[in-house]
Amino acid sequence: MSKLKKLNLPYEETYLGFDIYIETNPDEYREGFCWSISRNDEEHDYGLDFEAQQALEAAYKAIEKLTS
Question: Cα-flanking dihedrals φ and ψ of residue 58, to 5°?
Fold first, then answer.
């Protein structure tokens, strides 16, 4: 897992063969950051967190769960 880093949004990264995508929540009434993980154009998981770093950590954990 990567160490804490400043994320420029939208953020994209590949981790353990999965693509991570993070962006600000497009819903103007709910704050936060949307994240999703995909591989081969198939979305495997997604979520919403209050902080961008939390979204990245949640994506890492979801990938690690899928690969374990």
Answer: -65, -40
Phi-psi region of 58 (alpha: psi -120 to 50; beta: other; left: phi over 0): alpha
Exposure string (b/e) for 16-48, b if CB count within 10 Å is 16 or more? Answer: eebbbbbeeeeeeeeebbbbbbeeeeeeebebe
Name the pTM for this structure. Answer: 0.87
Q: Which two tokens stand for residue 10?
A: 């939208």
* 52's tokens: 């961008």
- 40-53: pLDDT as tens digits: 999 999 999 999 99
